[in-house]
Amino acid sequence: MLSADDSPAIEPAGTVGHNGGPPLEEAARRRGFVYYCWKQAHRAAWRSPGYEIMLRRLKRAQELGMSCREYTAIILDRGVYL
Q1: Among residues 4, 23, 42, 53, which one has the fewest Cβ atoms lying within 10 Å of its Cβ?
Q2: Cβ atoms of residues 22 and 34 within 8 Å
Q3: Cα(63)–Cα(58) distance, rounded to whole angstroms?
Q4: Is 33 part of any domain?
Q5: pLDDT tens digits along 1-51
Q6: What residues are paired with 2 via a beta bridge?
Q7: pLDDT value at position 66?
Q8: Residue numbers of the domain that contains 79
Q9: Is 44 a member of any domain?
Q10: How many CB atoms are closer than 10 A to CB 61?
Q11: CA 66 – CA 15 distance, rounded (Å)
Q12: DSSP track, 22-67
């Protein structure tokens, strides 16, 4: 998909390890299938995993002195439990 100045709307990923995340420019952000997929994945990651899991995360977050949202963000970011 080319824009008015004949430059690609979304630059291809050029570095090793690039995960092809959503574009950061506001104009390119609101269109395209890649942005839609990232938005859906973000919603799915923050959806509640279940009552028992949330209680366990809440208990552990309180033990560490942080909020449940902060603790969940660490789990989603690093993939490890503290």
Answers
A1: 4
A2: yes
A3: 9
A4: no
A5: 545 555 555 555 555 655 666 656 666 556 677 778 888 888 887 787 788
A6: 8
A7: 93
A8: 49-82
A9: no
A10: 19
A11: 35
A12: --SSHHHHTSSHHHHHHHHHHHHHHS---HHHHHHHHHHHHHHTS-
Q: Which residue has the tokens 């490890």?
A: 80
Rounded to whole angstroms, how far apart are CA atoms 34 and 56? 33
DSSP, res 74: H
Is the distance from CB of 26 to CB of 32 less than 8 angstroms?
no
Domain count, the chain: 1
Can you say how many angstroms the Cα of residue 76 is from the centroid of all Cα atoms in its chain? 8
| The two structure tokens encoding residue 54 | 């949330």
pLDDT at 79: 78
Which secondary-structure segment (H or E) carries 76?
Answer: helix 68-78
pLDDT at 52 over 70: yes
Residue 71 lies in a domain: yes
- The residues near 22 (Cβ < 8 Å, ≥ 6 apart) are 29, 34, 35, 38, 39
